[in-house]
Amino acid sequence: MKNFRFLFAFIVTLALGPLVLPEFYVTLLNYIGLYAIVALGLVLLTGVGGLTSFGQAAFVGVGAYTTAYLTTVYGVSPWLTLPAGLAVTAAVALSIGFITLRLSGHFLPLGTIAWGISLYYLFGSVDFLGGHTGISGIPALQIFGFELKSGRQFYYLIWALLLVIVVATRNLLDSREGRAVRSLKGGTLMAESMGVNTPRSKIVIFTIAALYACLSGWLYAHLQRFVNPTPFSLNQGIEYLFMVVVGGVAYVWGAILGAGLITILKQWLQDWLPQLLGQSGNFEMIVFGLLMILVLHRAREGLWPIILRLIPEHPERPRVAHADALPRRAILPAGSVLLEINNASKRFGGLIANDRMNFKVRSAEIMALIGPNGAGKSTMFNGISGVDPLTSGEISFCGERIEALEAREIARRGISRSFQHVRLLPTMSVLENVAIGAHLRGSKSFIHAACHAERAEEARLLHEAALQIERCGLAEHMYDAASSLPLGKQRIVEIARALAADPCLLLLDEPAAGLRYLEKQALADLLRRLRDQGMGILLVEHDMDFVMGLADRVVVMEFGQKLAEGLPEEVQRNPAVLEAYLGGVE
Ligand code: ADP
Ligand code: MG
Question: Disulfide check for 191: which of 183, 337, 373, 576 has CB 3.0–4.6 Å away?
């Protein structure tokens, strides 16, 4: 409610602005709006998706030059050059994205610098785009026959479009696809294991960010009525990044705050510094550099979260409402073979982490995989779930070979897992984290999400997540940030997330580590209930009392090989196991 009032006050102030402000400030606000549109794309791409781009200014240039060229040379109406510019930008972004988004670490930002520079020089070197002098005589925009000739008239168009984009971006982030994008930051391993197509998510946010930049460029061209390559240089690309870092790179409103602060500050510094220092020069850039370092030291998240702390009521996290249950996978008859491992081997250079492993897991069965540290248990899990494929051997699931499939395809077929080293998104609520597990059970696209036309599906997904959280006994923590839970409970959140996928085989890597006695008992009860409902469970665990009291069968590993297999009491009596695993001690 408070947020709504804040938004309302903001819109009223915006609407009244040009009526009272001098021309100079209206112009400044126009530029802030144009920059904020680009910065919003960076929030999505860099702040939320974790992909850093220095090249956004080049996409602004694509939007500006497309309309400049088409309107001046062919006399096309500006309202037709917008879709044309968006189409050109999408084509450029998809081709560049396809190549550069495969790069990881610092190679990606370097890649964006490379194409940012290339596009900039392309604008300046191509004759039909006017070289470094650019293109002038771009027509004014017309709305219903009314020409937007002054900055004051243009103002409303810029800010109306910006607000539309703010709403669309917020909607997008608060959706199934938005969660998938946010999960990129938790590492692609986790996201892929939950069925997220991470290359697709990356390329979509890259393209959306480019389209925002293109829109800004189109507006710019018709506001200025003239374009040349200067505003689309790498310098400007760095400035856009600067804006979001200062404003708050992970926050939609941070983009507007950052664009506003940097633009106003730059103007002031340009006016005052030369007077103060008694000589002219680009002193503002030096101050900016220092300011950036200060922000990175003191407010790494940017300034928006600091402002948020002053507002008593925080942004609402998604809440559960009643909704229809999602359809469930058919349950296989108890005892049918779910998973069959045949001669599975995994090498890491000279180390054989899994050496010709063989075993089966059936439905309605709890199978424990035990062995000393470094025996190869987690490696086996990674092989089964497709996160780190086998070097050789076969894995079948429900009679079909899966060892060569992508992790997300294996997840789709009904295998879900937790990780030994917890992989939750720390700032997201338990509910949202668990809802990532239900990713494959929804189908609505980014476009539905941006218009919030997927609310019914979203309600069902969150409802499902809430059911799994209750099932795992974490109802009281539903809306808490995942990072606020003790590590043991975070493991249980991982189980709830795995269950939200409605799997028929559950892989749990040390789920009881860090739990207290009563919590372990509750976990054992949960796993028994799941088994009795027909689920197959493969479990790695070190607590022998826990394993022996729970598992139906046990596989013992040592040095990557299977040492023994059988009922818990058989394995416990096996001399080789006692020797190897327990060091010969009773
Ligand atoms: P466990 O889960 O049984 O404790 P792991 O499967 O984690 O054991 O590890 C088995 C062996 O493989 C260990 O010697 C470990 O150091 C090695 N190993 C695991 N992952 C990798 C990797 N990505 N690269 C190289 N060696 C690895
Ligand atoms: Mg392990």
Answer: 183
Residues with CB under 6 A from ligand 1: 348, 351, 353, 371, 373-379
- Report whether 107 contacts 118 (CB < 8 A): no
Which atom of ligand 1 approaches the CA of 376 most closely?
A: 6
Of 347, 348, 357, the residue with max ligand 1 atoms within 8 A of its CB, to mutate for a pocket test, comes to 348
Q: How far is the CA of 207 from the centre of ligand 2 (A)?
A: 38
Which residue's C-alpha comes closest to atom 12 of ligand 1? 353
- Atom from ligand 1 closest to the CA of residue 509: 2
DSSP string, 556-583: EEETTEEEEEE-HHHHHH-HHHHHHTST
SS3 244: helix
Least confident of 258-262, 412-416, 575-579: 575-579
Q: Which residues contact 71 (CB under 8 A, 6 or more apart)?
A: 77, 78, 81, 138, 139
At 533-542, the pLDDT tens digits run: 999 999 999 8
pLDDT digits (tens, 9 = 90+) for 11-45: 888 888 888 899 899 999 999 999 999 999 999 99
Amino acid at 455: R
Burial class (CB in 10 A: 0-12, 13-18, 19+), 74: exposed
Domain 2-310 CATH (choose: 3.40.50, 2.40.30, 1.20.120, 1.10.3470): 1.10.3470
What CATH number does the domain located at 333-414+503-586 have? 3.40.50.300
For the chain, the structural domain boundaries read: 2-310, 333-414+503-586, 426-501
Report residue 177 as tokens: 């696809």
Q: In what order do the strands lie in the sheet with 400-401?
A: 351-362, 337-348, 392-397, 400-401
DSSP 489-554: HHHHHHHHHHHTT--SEEEEESTTTT--HHHHHHHHHHHHHHHHTT-EEEEE---HHHHHHH-SEE
In the reported structure, the alpha carbon of residue 546 is separated from the centroid of ligand 2 by a whole-number distance in angstroms of: 17
Find out whether 255 and 247 touch, Cβ atoms under 8 Å. Answer: yes
What is the Cα–Cα distance from 196 to 210, expressed in whole angstroms?
A: 22
Among 34, 53, 31, CA closest to 237 = 53
Nearest-CA residue for atom 26 of ligand 1: 348
Decide whether 2-310 matches 333-414+503-586 in CATH topology. Answer: no
Closest ligand (CA of 370): 1
Q: Which atom of ligand 1 is the closest one to the Cα of 388?
A: 23
In testing the pocket of ligand 1, which one of 379, 390, 420 has its CB within 8 Å of the most ligand atoms? 379
- What is the number of the ligand closest to the CA of 380? 1
Q: How far apart are the CA of 376 and the centre of ligand 2, in A? A: 7
Query: Ligand 2: distance of its center to the CA of 407 in Å?
Result: 19
Q: Which ligand is nearest to the CA of 369?
A: 1
Mean local confidence (pLDDT), 135-157: 89
pLDDT band at 585 (very low <50, low <70, confident <90, very high): very low
Nearest CA to ligand 1 atom 19: 379
Protein residue whose Cα sits closest to atom 17 of ligand 1: 353
**Residue 386, token pair as written in the block:** 């497709």
State the helix-helix crossing angle for 198-224 and 78-100, rounded to 10 degrees.
140
Phi and psi at residue 405, to the nearest 5°: -80, 160
